[in-house]
């Protein structure tokens, strides 16, 4: 991801190199090129507009005119603004004062929720947590089994409705899982909820019902970064329908243009907390805006 954007920005900056002072025309031309590079990377228009306005304003300011190396200073500004648009600080998990900490995952089918649940469980376990995975996706016949497979790979127990008891009520399962976690000393509960292929009122209502029943400490909206501009629309629909505290971006290993990653924070006001970068359980980390910005400008 970001290869094209990265190449484009490198060439924009190389045309600035060696310039002693930057004229208004230099600044405008640079801003124009950065704008095109961002649009080409599928970054949403309002985000591009604000980004470019900030770059121009700062490039015309003292920090550049007084710099020994103005081009270097512009690169520094772009880097800082990229970090900002990606969310600034790394967003840490907010653990509950009284365990268990409840983390609920919501998002479309195929976004990567179940995989992310396993990754998160494994990552938390490596840091002396004792997570419990909860199968509250009872819509798809295979979903519970899939979470059980992921749980086994992560070495994390899975709370699911008893087989033979019918389909079960996801709200009830979620509620019971909290009690189960308390009794069995699980300090984190990760709830995998049902998704559909498209945004759908029934799915939203179910997620909202689970939310109301368990009052999660963190609701995390999981979104496939490969779906481009659609990621932003889906993010808005979930914000209105369920609400969430943070975003998990999945499939960052793909070759999509990366616009979702650069747009979502700015448009939803919610930080990106997790980054999923492959199909293996280890391909996971907290999202670090500074590292991502450095990768783009590498
Ligand atoms: P869910 O329907 O939201 O629970 O999505 P799944 O966890 O079942 O993931 C859907 C597909 O995406 C599966 O084939 C996963 O292996 C794949 N997947 C999930 N996360 C990633 C990722 O970060 N990178 C890649 N390349 N594939 C992923």
UniProtKB/TrEMBL annotation:
Composed of three domains: the N-terminal N domain, which is responsible for interactions with the ribosome, the central G domain, which binds GTP, and the C-terminal M domain, which binds the RNA and the signal sequence of the RNC. Its main location: cytoplasm. One of its GO terms (cellular component) is signal recognition particle. The gene is ffh. Part of the signal recognition particle protein translocation system, which is composed of SRP and FtsY. This is Signal recognition particle protein. Keywords: Cytoplasm, GTP-binding, Hydrolase, Nucleotide-binding, Ribonucleoprotein, RNA-binding, Signal recognition particle. Its EC number is 3.6.5.4. One of its GO terms (biological process) is SRP-dependent cotranslational protein targeting to membrane. GO terms for molecular function: 7S RNA binding; GTP binding; GTPase activity. The chain holds residues 1 to 298 of 529 of the full protein. It comes from Nocardiopsis alba.
């Amino acid at each position: 991801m970001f290869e094209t954007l990265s190449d484009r920005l490198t060439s924009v900056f190389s045309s600035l190199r060696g310039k002693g002072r930057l004229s208004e025309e230099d600044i405008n031309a640079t801003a124009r090129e950065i704008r095109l590079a961002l649009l080409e990377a599928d970054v949403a228009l309002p985000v591009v507009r604000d980004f470019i306005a900030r770059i121009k304003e700062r490039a015309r300011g003292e920090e550049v005119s007084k710099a020994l190396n103005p081009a270097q200073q512009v690169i520094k500004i772009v880097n800082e603004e990229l970090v900002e648009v990606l969310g600034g600080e790394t967003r840490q998990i907010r653990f509950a004062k009284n365990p268990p900490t409840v983390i609920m995952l919501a998002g479309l089918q195929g976004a990567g929720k179940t995989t992310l649940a396993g990754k998160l469980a494994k990552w938390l376990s490596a840091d002396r947590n004792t997570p419990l995975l909860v199968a509250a996706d009872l819509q798809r016949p295979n979903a519970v089994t899939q979470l059980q497979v992921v749980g086994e790979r992560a070495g994390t127990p899975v709370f699911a409705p008893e087989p033979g008891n019918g389909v079960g009520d996801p709200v009830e399962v979620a509620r019971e899982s909290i009690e189960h976690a308390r009794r069995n000393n699980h300090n984190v509960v990760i709830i995998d909820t049902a998704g559909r292929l498209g945004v759908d009122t029934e799915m939203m209502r179910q997620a909202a019902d689970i939310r109301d029943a368990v009052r999660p400490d963190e609701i995390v909206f999981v979104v496939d970064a490969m779906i481009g501009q659609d990621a932003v629309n889906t993010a808005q629909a979930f914000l209105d329908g369920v609400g969430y505290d943070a975003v998990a971006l999945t499939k960052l290993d793909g070759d999509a243009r990366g616009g979702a990653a650069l747009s979502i924070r700015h448009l939803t006001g919610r930080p990106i907390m997790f980054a999923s970068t492959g199909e293996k359980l280890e391909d996971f980390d907290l999202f670090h805006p500074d590292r991502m910005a450095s990768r783009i400008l590498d």
